[in-house]
Amino acid sequence: MTGYLGSYATLGLLLLASVLIFVGAFSANRLLSPANPAEPVGKRLTYESGVDPVGGDWAQMQIRYYVYAYLYVLFAVEAVFLFPWAVVFDRPGFGATTVVEMAIFVAVLALGILYAWRKKILNWT
User: Which phi and psi (to 5°) does residue 8 adopt?
Assistant: First the structure.
């Protein structure tokens, strides 16, 4: 099959193959795994470097730096879009339209960093 419908047929076959692999993997797991596996003694006990645990098994952790991780991802994505744009910027056909598009993109990111700064998200305390 070639032409317009050929690409949809290829896409349909790939989708069908992926669904069959997914269903086959779960079916094989269901058929080959034991129904009621015997659990070894102590499997669900807390493990602490090979010695018996001291104290309780629940501790609350404070994740303080997730905002910085989000901001890093935001600006890494910005770099992914800015570098290819900068490479092709001086070529013919990439005129004022691309400058306006990238200015809007950078302005939206600048608004995001301004919002984070005004909400005092960027403080280390």
Answer: -70, -35
How far is 17 from 103, CA to CA, in rounded Å?
Answer: 43
| Per-residue pLDDT reduced to its tens digit, 50-70 | 666 666 667 777 777 777 787
Query: How many CA atoms, within 13 angstroms, populate the side-chain half-sphere of residue 16?
Result: 6
The DSSP secondary structure of 9-63, one letter per residue, reads: HHHHHHHHHHHHHHHHHHHHHHHHS-SSPPPPTTTTS--BTTB---S-S------
Give the domain ranges of the chain. 66-118
Q: pTM for this structure? A: 0.43
